[in-house]
Amino acid sequence: MELRAKERVPVLTGVLTVVSLALVFAAVGRVLPTGALPRSEPLVELIPHLNAVLSTAAIGTITAGWRWIRRDEVARHRAAMLTSFVLFAAFLVLYLYRVSLEGPSEFPGPETVYLYLYLPLLAVHVLLAIVCVPLVYYALLLAATHTPTELRRTAHKRVGRVAASLWLVSFTLGIVVYAMLYVVF
């Protein structure tokens, strides 16, 4: 099984990316059937705050993973990056649940801030999040299907560096968007 996956990392990356992004766009577009979802108002209200905590934790684990690999601490790097992915997955499940039920959050602040600050920040955040999906999947699938020695001969280092950088910026902008929606305004 591992050998077959090792040979198909780009295809698996593509499939996972399409499925993930289709779920996100379907949730945001409110085309997912939500009748079967249990509705918990306290949870729905808590999700933006939980996701801000998950994003902050992911920034910490990505940064730690980056430092550990620079020190050649492969096991710690792997644990940090897997933890980052789990945090992201938890974020995504909560986000999809909330946006499926409620739709995207409306900006409560002034129109000028909305047009000239919030929308550009949100656009960059969303664009980076979309770009990160295949990069993160590719780096993780390479790591999951190759030994550390084999991994050095793949694009893992290069793709992982780009993925981690963009992921950090995306998570950080997500926290700024959260602050504008739920703290500042």
UniProtKB/TrEMBL annotation:
The chain crosses the membrane at residues 50-68, 80-97, 117-141, 162-184. It comes from the Archaea. Keywords: Membrane, Transmembrane, Transmembrane helix. This is DUF420 domain-containing protein. It comes from Halomarina oriensis.
